[in-house]
Design brief:
The chain has 74 residues and is α+β, with helices and mostly antiparallel strands. Strands 2-3-1-4 form a four-stranded mixed sheet. A hairpin with a 2-residue loop joins strand 2 and strand 3. The longest helix is centred in the first third of the chain and has 10 residues. It is globular, with a radius of gyration of 12 Å.
Amino acid sequence: MKKNIDLATIKNFILTNALNENVMLMLHPSNFAKLAKTGTKTIKSLCVNGINIIADNNGEVSEGEIDVLEIKFN
């Protein structure tokens, strides 16, 4: 069974894991496409609760999975 990822799932994931703006979330392209669907516009990233969400273009994230990427500031 594939996990459905919607905005509520993302918000719950952020709160449960106490994430802040020092991370980004990466989703499988099909999960991201369903989340970012807005008619004919193509969206490359989303922001939920101050956290950017992007699609995985390297085949690292499985469908139904959320990957957390740490952002390093110099």
